Amino acid sequence: MHPEHDNNLTGEKSIDGEPLGRNCRDAAMGGWFDAQMLRLAGTP
User: Fold this and answer.
1) What is the pLDDT of residue 39?
2) What is the pLDDT of residue 18?
3) Residues 21, 2: contact at Cβ < 8 Å?
4) Nearest 10 degrees: CA dihedral of 30, 36, 37, 43?
5) Quick one: DSSP state of residue 20?
6) Residue 44: is its pLDDT beyond 80?
7) Which residues 6+ apart lie within 8 Å of 27 measured at CB?
8) pLDDT digits (tens, 9 = 90+) for 1-37
9) Could you give the residue ranges of the DSSP H alpha helices within 1-44?
10) Exposed, middle or buried: residue 29 (CB in 10 Å: 0-12, 13-18, 19+)?
11) How far is Cα 35 from Cα 30, in angstroms, rounded to an integer?
12) Closest by Cα among 31, 29, 26, 34 to 8
């Protein structure tokens, strides 16, 4: 599974991390990120 690739993640000056065992992404110092999240049919 490649969630960042699968959801078309783009950005600048963003970092990923794993605080408390959970994956996350942060944009700092003028950075940004954007993703197109997919959803399954029939889900809200």
Assistant:
1) 77
2) 85
3) no
4) 130
5) G
6) no
7) 11, 13, 14, 33
8) 566 666 678 888 887 888 898 887 888 889 998 888 7
9) 3-6
10) exposed
11) 17
12) 34
What residue type is assigned to position 34 of the chain?
D
Q: What percent of the chain has pLDDT over 70?
A: 84
The verdict on pTM exceeding 0.90 is no
Reduced to 3 states (helix: H, G, I; strand: E, B; else coil), residue 10 is strand
Tokens of 22: 């959970």
Q: Which residues contact 25 (CB under 8 A, 6 or more apart)?
A: 9, 11, 14, 15, 16, 17, 33
